[in-house]
Amino acid sequence: MFNRVSKKLFALGLLASVLFLSTPAHAQLGDAGEILKAGSADANILLKNYLNPFGKGFGAGMNTGWFTSAGTHKKLGFDLSLNVGVAIVPTSGLTFDVDNIGLSTLQRTNGNAITPTINGNDNTNTELGILYTNPITNQEELLTEFNMPAGVGFEYVPSPMVQASIGLIKSTDLSIRFIPETSLGDDFGNVSLFGLGFKHGLNQWIPGGKLIPVDISLQAGFTQLTLTSPFDVTPESGADIKNDFDASTWDNQSLDFEANSFTFNAIVGKTLPFISAYVGVGYETSETSIVTPGAYPITSVNDDYNGTSETQTKKIESIVDPIDITIGGENSLRAFGGVQFKIAVIKIFANYTAATYSSFNAGFGITFR
User: Which of 154, 93, 151, 89 is nearest to 122 (CA)?
Assistant: First the structure.
């Protein structure tokens, strides 16, 4: 039952939050495939800088929504909720300077050095290329060139979650986040999620703790999300480019995304019949990895070019699994506060976390005991 309900709730959350961003974001990732023309080394540098705020923001968002009060459930108490975390990308995460990121073979051929990240402005005029010396004419020519992809013009990173919690013994809650591998359609690929968290009430261990007018608890949680999205990078074509590869060589390209997050929190709050409020401090970490399995075409100098019309100055080469980048989370220490409203078994809640990548989290659910 939980499997069916969680799929439906996840779909609703996805439609409400992610799809607002995903159509332009997916288009931008398709444009980002142009970056692979740079070859593996420079492409890894460019993609890491371009996707940096998305990776950091997604990790921060996944660390929210674990709790909606400082108190714990009674034994076998239960809740099921849908929540959406939205990380706020700081101004420093909206652009980067292509002239100062350590590119080796690429150089800026036109436009501005400052270009948007995936969460930046939806326009750019930055052009990058590789120059080479024609062995016959000894003239410097352009081997390949591409425009940097623009951003989506949306300074937020949403992270929808479906979560179930149950009360165990000794004021301890067990929380589970689980979405089996689910298709988002041919254009967007497959997604899966798993998370495990615990919250433990401390009042019972404090002398006179039952007389303390607030609940004090500790909480920890781990979440992992994986996403596999189709990628489509095709070779350049032209009379001056030699291509001996069959079109099927470029099948099975994909962009594989994995985000892992962990958080540990100390919470103090008060629960009344219809409202709960809490504040706290915590530590969090996250890591996002992005790889591109498959074969990808790049344009290189044709060493067999002899200056005649029977040979071409350039050729297509294949690079395999070119992208392998890791983006570490920006947040470490954080402060937060939240509120929950409860009417019968229905709860509505919201939370704000202050950190380098600050975030909002809000949602609704059902709760018993």
Answer: 151
Predicted pLDDT at 22: 45
User: What b/e readout covers 345-362, taking b as 16+ CB neighbours within 10 angstroms?
Assistant: eebebebebebbbbbbbb
* Inter-axis angle of helices 19-32 and 40-62, nearest 10: 170
Count other Cβ atoms within 10 Å, centred on residue 280.
21
Query: What single-letter amino acid sits at 89?
Result: V
Is this prediction's pTM over 0.90? no
pLDDT in tens, 261-308: 999 999 999 998 899 999 999 999 999 898 989 999 988 888 887 777
Residue 190 CA to residue 358 CA, distance in Å, equals: 28
- Taking only the tens place, the pLDDT of each residue in 234-256 is 888 888 888 999 999 998 888 88
Residue with token string 């359609």 = 185
Give the integer Cα–Cα distance in Å for 201 and 178: 24
Structure tokens at 334: 């954080």
Burial category of 139 from C-beta neighbours within 10 Å (exposed 0-12, middle 13-18, buried 19 and up): exposed
Place of tokens 């950091």: 56
Domain locations in the chain as residue ranges: 2-236+258-291+330-368
Residues 260, 224: contact at Cβ < 8 Å? yes
Separation of alpha carbons 185 and 191, rounded Å: 10
> 283, 237 in Cβ contact below 8 A?
no
Comparing CA positions, the residue from 333, 348, 226 lying closest to residue 280 is: 333
Unique residue bearing structure tokens 């540990």? 264
Calculate the alpha carbon distances from 82 to 45, 152, 227, 277, 363 in Å. Answer: 36, 26, 20, 19, 6
Distance in Å from the first CA to the final CA of the chain: 20
At 149-169, the pLDDT tens digits run 888 888 888 888 889 999 999
Look up the CATH number of domain 2-236+258-291+330-368. 2.40.128
